[in-house]
Amino acid sequence: MRRLKSLTLVALAVLAISACSNSKSEVEQAPAQELFTEARTYLQEGNYSQATRYLEAVNSRFPGTSYSEQAQLDLIYAAYKTQDYTKALVTADAFLQQYPYSQHLDYVLYMAALTNSALGDNLIQDFFGVDRSTRETTSMKTAFSNFQTLVQNFPNSPYTPDAVARMAYIKDRLARHELEIAKFYAKRNAHVAVANRVTDMLRTYSDTAATLEALPLMQHAYEQMGLTQLAKDAETLIKANEGRSIKPVEKPEEPLLSLPSWLKSSDE
């Protein structure tokens, strides 16, 4: 019985090795269309690791073809879905350099923006309701820039409406970040820092609730510094905005991403 069990394990191992060998051979020898179709099937099934394997084979074996272009686009998608954000951004950047005139530039910009936005988020903070406006904002600023480039250069893109909504959310979040810093300085009587911070908010985020909330901080800072006229100007600005209500911007829902339809090609 023990020998039979041993032989069975050996047989299973041989079959496994054979299957891996055949799979490897398929990736090494299959034509581009077959590899790409297989990769798309895995993507639709949510098997991103297998999809990535086939897409990377397409990209390395058929460089310069439309299949390679399509494979890179799908690799960005797969990396984003698996939260491999560094790989998504690296692939997006490489795509923009290699295909500066691609008809899918709007998609790449959108995916880069979503990726940078995701980098600025934190699932644990979401779960516990922590206000992320107090966290570091570099990724969110980059995401805003990505969305802005998309909106300005591709106003008719199907991704533009969602980009506009996400820009509003990011702007609101960045303004709240600045407000928290102004409050921090105010508690420490750093009046010059408070005035400068709120002045920047007026210049950059004038249409946000956080900026309206910051105006009294600026008035108080000027009063403490003995800058009477500037304090009066701040008071005038506060009175001019009395009764004005700006609702906080809700975080947009996670986009229901779907794979774009690529151009049909006969490249091999």
Question: Topology of this protein?
Answer:
Blueprint: H1 2-29, H2 32-45, H3 48-61, H4 66-81, H5 85-98, H6 105-119, H7 123-128, H8 138-153, H9 160-187, H10 191-204, H11 209-224, H12 228-240
Keyword list:
BamD-like; disordered N terminus; 268 residues; 12 helices; mainly alpha; Outer membrane protein assembly factor BamD; Serine Threonine Protein Phosphatase 5, Tetratricopeptide repeat; cell outer membrane
Characterise this structure:
Belongs to the BamD family. It comes from Mesocricetibacter intestinalis. This protein has a domain of about 70 residues: Serine Threonine Protein Phosphatase 5, Tetratricopeptide repeat, CATH 1.25.40.10. About 70% of the residues lie in helices and about 0% in strands. It has 12 helices and no strands. It is elongated. The N terminus and C terminus are likely disordered.
**Percent helix among the residues?**
over 70%
CATH arch. level architecture of the domain at 30-100: Alpha Horseshoe
Which class do the helix and strand fractions yield? mainly alpha
Q: Per DSSP, what share of the residues sits in E-state strands of 2 or more residues?
A: under 5%
Q: Give me the CATH fold name of the domain at 30-100.
A: Serine Threonine Protein Phosphatase 5, Tetratricopeptide repeat
Distance between the termini: 53 Å
**Poorly predicted sequence stretches spanning 5 or more consecutive residues:** 1-22, 263-268
Order of helices and strands: HHHHHHHHHHHH
Keywords: Cell outer membrane, Lipoprotein, Membrane, Palmitate, Signal
Pfam families: YfiO (PF13525)
Family: Belongs to the BamD family.
Biased composition (Basic and acidic residues): 245-254
